[in-house]
Design brief:
single chain, Phage tail protein beta-alpha-beta fold, mainly beta, 15-stranded mixed β-sheet, globular, Thrombin, subunit H, 358 residues, three-stranded mixed β-sheet
Amino acid sequence: MHSPPVSVGWEFNLVNRDDKNPRPIHFSTTGDYTFDLSRDVVRAIGGLVLLPDDRSKVNLSSDWVEPYIVLDGVRYQMGRFVFSEDVEQRNVVLDENGTTANLTNVALADQTTMLLRNDGRPETLYAGFRPTFEMERMVFDSKYLNTSIEADDSANTETISWDGTTSVLSKVRQLAELAGHMTPWLDNFGTLRSVSANRIYGTVLKLDEDLFLGDSDSVSVTNNYLTIPNRVIVTSTSSDSQIVGVWDAPASWPSSAAQRGYIQATTEQVQGLHSSADAEKVAASIGRRLSARKLSFRAIPTYVLDGPRVLSYDDALWTVTSWSMSTSPGSQMSVEAEEYFAEDDDVIRAPRELPGML
C-alpha cells in the first residue's frame, strides 16, 4: 500500500522575463489547472483573481507565472505560464462592511502561446530541410523557450510552404508530424518536448488499485473498437507525382481488420513528403494515436504525469492524453488515457510505482 500525502497545496511565483528573480504572487481564488494534448496550447489555468495590491506588482505583458504543487511540504514545479486574458471587475463588494475594490480575473496559458504569432509573410522550406532542425530554429527565435527535440529524422526532398496566416506553433506541430513525433508539449520545467511517436516517453508507470482513492467509481474504461479507423491513408503531392502511404492496425490489435473483419479507413493530406516511405511513417504516427479504449480515473494530485506518460493498468498500456485538477487544497486529479499497443520497435522500460500518490 502507498501512503497518501498528509497535505496537498499550491504556491505561485511571479517571474519577470528580464530580471528572472521569482517572487511570490497571491491569487485570491483557486483555479482549474488543465493539461490536454489535443489543444494547441496544452496547459492552462483559469479562474484566478488578483486583488489590487497584487495586481499592481504584475506586468501582464512581460511576466510569467510558475505554479508549484506542494505535497507534504515539498514543492514541485508544474510548468511555466503567461497571462493570456484579464478582465477587470470594478467596485466589487468584498465584505460585510461594504468595502469595495477592483478585482482582476486572469487566465494563464503555457509559454507556447509565444508561438501563436505570425508576421504576415509566407515562409518556404526548400527541399533538403530537416523537420527537427527547423523546429529548433523556430522555437529558438522565441528567446524564452527551451527545447528538447529528438533529432532522429531524415531530410525532406520536397519543398513545404505556409502562407502568412500560419502561426509558428502550427508550423512546429506540422514539422513534428513530418518527423514522426508525438504532439509537442511544454513540460513541468518549461521545456518544449518533442519525441518520436514509436518510442515510449519515459518509464512506464504502474497503476495499482490503491491509486484510485479506494473508490471503484473513479475508474472507468470506454471501449470503441467498432468505431475507430483501422487504416490510415496519407497523401502528398510532390513536384511530379502523387505520394501515398498506408498504415494498417496490426492484426493483434482488437480494432484491426483481422479482428473486426472489415476495413474502416481515414485519409489525411500532408505537405512536404518526398516518398511513400515518409508517407507511411506519418500514417503510422497518426494510426498509433488512434485508440480503441480510453481509461479515466481520479487520484491524489501528482507532479509525475508530465506529458504523454505511459501507464500500466489491467494488463494493458495506456498513454496519458489529458488531466485536470483544482488548485484548491485537497482536490483530486482527473486523468484521461488512451490504450497504447506496443509494436516491435517500441522501447518499453520496466514499470515502477508512482511517487507522491496514494
